[in-house]
Specification:
The protein is an alpha/beta fold and 191 residues long. The protein is built from 4 helices and 12 strands; from the N terminus they run βαβαβαβαββββββββ. It is globular, with a radius of gyration of 18 Å.
Length: 191
């Protein structure tokens, strides 16, 4: 792997049908250097051959298991291969937008954030709804055990949105939102 600031770890989700579109979108829409680790958990033979060919073509690390892996188990396997400053986890059914990675890295660098998350949409262009747009994460004590608790913010979106959510180590939350008005003057907000 190359000496880069970011490693992208791709992991299986519920389906393999978006594998090639997802990987292609990463290579077409990422404009800064990155290393890639692809965790392939029990994919069908056609997908397995495709990933092996792409790993040779793009020189990325391919980790293969014979059985399906949950996303978190796959992330843990991929994380063991990361040597860069930043790691980005991407599910194998995610299609990224042009410039996506630079925006995330810039947000982390400018805010000193421990975690940076993009606006995550579900659906094809034109009929998308927001899957995740920030929220809260807590670790609390319950009956003598530590419990991980999350709360996601979601709403319907009909035009182009980009969101940079950063949670700095001091617990404050910084959000900047860019709304593409499709021909009009873009507007920006920071909270």
């Amino acid at each position: 792997m190359t000496d880069t600031q970011v490693t992208i770890v791709v992991v299986p989700r519920e389906r393999f049908s978006y594998t090639s579109r997802s990987l292609q979108s990463i290579y077409e829409n990422t404009d800064i250097p990155f290393s890639l680790v692809y965790v392939d958990g029990g994919s069908p033979a056609r997908i397995r051959r495709y990933l092996a060919q792409k790993a040779r073509q793009h020189n990325f690390k391919l980790i293969r298991t014979k059985r399906y892996l949950s996303p978190n188990l796959a992330r843990n396997l991929g994380l063991q291969q990361v040597e860069s400053k930043y790691v980005v986890f991407v599910d194998n059914d995610v299609l990224v937008s042009p410039g996506w990675l630079k925006v995330l890295v810039d947000c982390a660098e400018k805010t000193g954030a421990w975690v940076v998350s993009p606006l995550t949409l579900i659906g094809e262009t034109g009929s998308q709804s927001i899957h995740a747009a920030g929220g809260t994460v807590n670790i609390k004590e319950e009956r003598g055990q530590r419990v991980f608790e999350t709360n996601h913010l979601c709403w319907k979106v009909t035009s182009g949105f980009r969101l940079c959510l950063a949670s700095p180590g001091n617990g404050a939350c910084r959000v900047s939102l860019h709304v593409d008005t499709h021909g009009g003057v873009p507007s920006s907000w920071s909270l």
